[in-house]
Amino acid sequence: MKTMVQLAVVLAAGWGNLAVAAGPERVTTNQAANEQMLYFTSTSLLADDQHLVFIGDRTGQPNIFLRDLRTGAERQLSTNSEGYLKSYVYFDGRPYRGFGKASVSVDPARGIVYFLQGRQVCAVTTGGVLRVLAELPEGQMTAFTHVSADGARLCVPTTDAAAFDGPPAKTDARVQQQGLNSYLRVFDTATGQALVCERVPKGWITHVQFSPRDSRLILYNHEWPADCGIRRMWLFDGRQHLRLRTEGEGRSREDWTCHEMWERDGTAIIYHGGYKNGPSYVGRVKPDGSGRVEIPLPQAWERYGHFTVGRPGELVSDGYFEQPDDPRAGHGAWLCRVTADWAAGRLDWQPLCRNGSSWNSQDSHPHPIFNHAADAVYFTSDQDGKRAVWRIAVP
User: Fold this and answer.
1) What does the alpha-carbon distance between residue 2 and residue 275 come to, in Å, rounded to a whole number?
2) For the chain, N or C: smaller number of CB within 10 Å?
3) Are β-strands 241-243 and 256-262 bridged in parallel, bridged antiparallel, or unpaired?
């Protein structure tokens, strides 16, 4: 690990000489509304990179909208009028009623958007045709959903509602002490049939992601666990559950690990976090738990952010990177393209622009994503006062 840390610091010394890309452009244009991208585990773009799915409150309530990036035409895809659903991240929402702000996921190839409205699992086409696929059982709270790459399956994670009866920071503790469960619920997107209902004892699951090349594999997490360094990341293959980060080789249960997501080709999983009493890091591991590489960042880089995948070996981040004149506190100020040489333990950072976001709520986190062509990055920012979706070209 010492060699890797030294290498990262050497790279840091030269980053100030990199040219910053041309400034970002605002994509959504309603100055009176808050408008934001979906959570980064789902793309917000259809496969043609010309249509953007976003959440906006212009109706006075959160709803889903579609924007044609060529013409500027917009269409409202949901008709929510009941506020927002209580779920992970949105702990102050309405129990079992309202729009699931954390629930939206997009099938980019087929132009179908999935979301929760109360306990109903819904699908809507880009033409506005709505179907109710299924209804979730009572006594279950939800989180981020995910649709498989072939469009055939939708995974909706739920957790016993008693886990939410108290301060959010104590949720995992309640799950452990009361022996509560989460469930990986997989639905057939054509029929709404429940294909899988896998109970996960003593786990609070909030992130689920199908493998891009094998929809039998579901990457999932335990949220905010006390032993985050070894209990955060899991893989379910339809039969067994594999822990993806265990103790040993400098790893500790007291490390911090988060924001796991698949490489676009499904060959590996990217994640990041921080070592106990040490630097932050970016990691990569294969689905069978082998081939782990973790690259430490400079010790001073502690700005919270995310890493989202582009082409293999390419990431975009809204955190950690610092310029010498940046304030010494706060969340990530920059969007950066990060090129990873996993074999050499090297990260090269290319600053694209300042994200300008206040980070004052989950909704204002930039959550940057590459478009499908990987020649532009889209992100959320409230730099103009209201949240909006922005785009920056990748040189």
Assistant:
1) 13
2) C
3) unpaired
C-alpha separations of 368 from 97, 164, 293, 377 in Å:
29, 29, 23, 6
In 3D, which of 228, 299, 232 has the Cα closest to residue 269? 232
Query: Phi and psi (nearest 5°) for 135?
Result: -130, 130
Rounded mean pLDDT, 200-225: 98
Closest CA to 261 of 239, 242, 235, 229: 235
Assess contact for 220 and 260: CB atoms under 8 A: no
Question: Is residue 78 classed as helix, strand or coil in its secondary structure?
Answer: coil
Contact criterion met (CB below 8 Å) for 263 and 246: no
Average pLDDT in the chain: 94
- pLDDT given for residue 199 in this prediction: 98
Domain boundaries defined on the chain: 42-206
Mean pLDDT for 13-34 is 75
- As a whole number, mean pLDDT of residues 184-189 equals 98
Amino acid occupying residue 372: H
Report pLDDT for 19.
Answer: 52
Q: Cβ(166)–Cβ(175) under 8 Å?
A: no
Cβ neighbours around 120 below 10 Å, total: 13
Written as one letter, the residue type at 174 is R
d(CA 243, CA 88): 22
Architecture of the CATH domain 42-206: 7 Propeller (2.130)
Q: Which of the four pLDDT bands, split at 50, 70 and 90, describes residue 219?
A: very high
pTM for the predicted model, two decimal places: 0.94
CA 64, CA 35: separation in Å to the nearest integer?
10
CA distances from 201 to 13, 28, 182, 195 (A): 47, 42, 7, 19
